[in-house]
């Protein structure tokens, strides 16, 4: 878990930017997190991914639309792009939590994508 103080605040702001679906601001906040020395894995798990989980839970309850869930994912992706070079530079790793299979049906064909959560 992330530390208290400015680092915890920036992680919370990352979560809020995902909830607000603001790609431009999530990049700014992610860059600030890097400058503050926030662990990028914690920032992703406890900030960006947490925001997507909140939207996902709302979607599951019928309180959010699929477009909101997709947009939250795009915002998270923009934030992760800022953290990726830092993760590679520091050779950080996260324990894999599993595999997600996403499917969409279009007329009679089905497209499946496999996303590995590493």
Structure notes:
This protein has helices spanning 6-19, 23-36, 40-60, 66-90, and strands spanning 98-106, 109-117. The chain has four helices and two strands; from the N terminus they run ααααββ. It has a two-stranded antiparallel sheet with strand order 1-2. It is an alpha+beta fold and 118 residues long. The protein has a single domain (6-117), classed as Methionine synthase domain (Methyltransferase, Methionine Synthase (B12-binding Domains), Chain A, domain 1), CATH 1.10.1240. Helix content is 63%, strand content 15%. Strand 1 (98-106) and strand 2 (109-117) form a beta hairpin.
CATH topology: Methyltransferase, Methionine Synthase (B12-binding Domains), Chain A, domain 1
The secondary structure category is alpha+beta
Number of strands: 2
Helix and strand pattern: HHHHEE
Which word captures the global form?
A: globular
- The spatial strand order of the largest sheet comes to 1-2
Counting structural domains, the number is 1
Distance separating the two termini: 18 Å
Please tell me the CATH architecture by its name: Orthogonal Bundle
User: Considering the protein shown, what is the CATH homologous superfamily?
Assistant: Methionine synthase domain
Which CATH class? Answer: Mainly Alpha
Radius of gyration: 15 Å
How much helical structure, as a percent, in the residues? Answer: 55-70%
- The total count of helices amounts to 4
How much beta, percentage-wise? 15-25%
Q: Show unreliable segments.
A: 108-118
Mean pLDDT: 84
The description of the largest β-sheet is:
2 strands, antiparallel
């Amino acid at each position: 878990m992330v530390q208290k103080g400015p680092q915890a605040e920036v992680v919370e702001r990352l979560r809020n930017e995902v909830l607000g679906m603001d790609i431009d601001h999530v990049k700014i906040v992610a860059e600030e997190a890097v400058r503050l020395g926030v662990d990028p894995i914690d920032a992703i798990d406890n900030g960006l991914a947490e925001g997507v989980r909140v939207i996902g839970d709302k979607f599951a309850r019928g309180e959010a639309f699929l477009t909101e869930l997709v947009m939250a994912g795009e915002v998270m992706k923009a934030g992760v792009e800022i953290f990726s070079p830092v993760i590679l530079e520091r050779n950080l790793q996260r324990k894999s939590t599993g595999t997600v299979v996403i499917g969409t049906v279009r007329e009679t064909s089905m497209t499946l994508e496999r996303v590995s959560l590493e």
